[in-house]
Amino acid sequence: MTLVGVGAVKYIYCKVLTNIRALLYYYTMKRPIICTRIGVFVGTVAFCAGAAFAQQPAPPPAFQPAPPPLQLQQPVQAQPAPPSPAYQPAPQPVQQQPPVVAPPPPPQKEAQDQSGWGAGTSPAPEAPKTGLIDAKSSMRLGVELSAEALAAAPYLYYDNGKRPGVGKVAYPKDHYIYRRFDNVVVKPIGGELPFKNGDTVDVLKYIKNVKVGGERACLVARIARGVVFAFVGDNAVVRLTDMWGKVTGSESVVRATPFIPVYVDNKPAGGGANIGANVILQLDATVAAPYMHQYIVLDKGSEAGVKIGDFFRVVDKERHDRLTEELVEAQVLNVTPKASTLLLQKIYRERLKPGDRAYLSFRAAAKID
Predict the structure, then answer these.
(1) Same structural domain for residues 209 and 302?
(2) Residues 348/325, Cβ–Cβ less than 8 Å
(3) Spatial separation of the C-alpha atoms in residues 172 and 163, rounded to whole Å
């Protein structure tokens, strides 16, 4: 049956059920027997209609999803049948690998001494490490002292306490200090400046006056270097090319001293010298204990045989109540006729003061590059 037929059956069923209910209500009060029969009839009709309605198929849905594609199963490959026990193939013989033999070591040449007997072999010596002094031993290693390090070392200037220099740096106008490649004006002191265009000059900083053995000296440090390139009246205009400190004005100007790098070998020079000196100054002594790369000044210079690159060890000043102890070891960077400036390279005790004794501990075979 179609959907229209099913709807008509439902409509007729509802109408008949409504009329039967009305009749049932009317005859209930007067005809009980008739009502009973009518009720049986109505129940039978309702049962038949329900059965007929239940047998109808359900209407198809408005949208049916497509059935999933069938997945074909992979064909199962038949495994080969095991070989018959009646026949067994003979096992293949195992081929043994030949043993690996290490190549024989190369023949070593035996060193022979002057008598001709073999002295055996000895390992080659290790190459020396770079640096000045090995921290684990007292052996000194080769080092190159640059020209900048030699030029920046402070030194004592002996001229009865007078400051060196033929000119003085003028104060800057637009800033506090001069910088590298700035132009500075140099004013003469007591006459004309003995410079010309192209000359190289040094700028010296005054530190303090020192009295050594009844003679006064001036401690100065080289803080800048420049080239004269112009003159304005009696004043010279200098362009700063190298700087090792602050230039603020009023520093002295002198003709430049050339410095050449020096290579200090780790081999001692022949002909030992016996030089003793005293510590005059300990520069930048902001703390009581000495520190690495601190400058000290001794009262002996080139007149006593001191050379650049020499090592001096400093000991306590002699006392009667106890033995002296080694305090520090330093290397000479600047030498004047009556004094020398050293840089601390090794510290043994955390104390150092002016008056301590120093002695030459090592003189290397210095070679100027």
Answers:
(1) no
(2) yes
(3) 22
Condensed to tens digits (0 to 9), the pLDDT of residues 22-44 reads 766 665 655 555 555 666 566 66
Contact, 216 vs 160, CB < 8 A? yes
40 is written with which tokens?
Answer: 């049986």
Residue 89 bridge partners (DSSP): none
Same domain, 237 and 267: no
Close Cβ partners of 59 (under 8 Å, ≥ 6 residues apart):
3
Rounded Cα distance, 1 and 5, in Å: 6
Quote the CA–CA distance of 326 and 330 in Å, as a whole number: 12
Domain CATH code at residue 289: 2.40.10.340
- Which range of residues forms the domain containing residue 43? 3-53
pLDDT digits (tens, 9 = 90+) for 346-355: 999 998 989 9
pTM of the model: 0.60
What is the number of structural domains in the chain? Answer: 3
Asked whether 342 and 298 are in contact (CB, 8 A), the reply is yes
Q: What is the CATH number of the domain that holds 192?
A: 2.40.30
